[in-house]
Design goal:
Structural class: mainly alpha
Largest sheet: 2 strands, antiparallel
Radius of gyration: 16 Å
Distance between the termini: 9 Å
Strand order of the largest sheet: 1-2
Number of helices: 7
Order of helices and strands: HHHHEHHHE
Number of strands: 2
């Protein structure tokens, strides 16, 4: 794990690498969502409308959240981040706490709800950080 000096001088990932990682991440999320939706539908039944539909959406959001929070807290990397050799660390160059990972997931969700503006922020950020990482003082580093 890098120390503070190494974290400050670590090379920022390129926009191409970030984009490729995001595309890979979407594929992982789709697979996870299919598996979780299947389990939900086997237990609950039809969820095309009403409270069951809302329940399915909440269940999927929570399942994806557990995946991200677990990965960021335990290793600093999701499956896609491992493939592209990216790691998320806090400002002290440590792995994210569970609480910080939850806040990161919530802010990333908000970024998506705002048409991806928080992710597009990486285009103008000198370190190519997403807005939620800039706000939380996290850093994406090349591993």
């Amino acid at each position: 794990m890098p120390n503070n000096l190494e974290l400050q001088t670590a090379q920022a990932p390129s926009l191409l690498k970030l984009g490729a990682c995001l595309i890979y991440e979407v594929l992982v999320i789709i697979a996870l969502s299919f598996a979780c939706a299947l389990a939900f539908l086997m237990i609950v039944g039809d969820a095309t409308h009403g409270i069951r539909r809302v329940g399915l959406q909440l269940f999927l959001w929570l399942a994806v959240g557990v995946y991200f929070v677990w990965c960021w807290h335990k290793s600093g990397q999701t499956l896609a981040m491992q493939t592209w050799r990216l790691k998320v660390l806090n400002q002290e160059a440590h792995l994210l706490s569970v609480n910080m990972a939850i806040v990161r997931y919530a802010l990333a969700t908000l970024s998506l709800m705002l048409f991806g503006l928080g992710f597009l922020w990486a285009i103008v950020d000198k370190e190519h950080l997403f807005l939620h990482d800039r706000l939380l003082k996290n850093k994406l580093v090349l591993k």
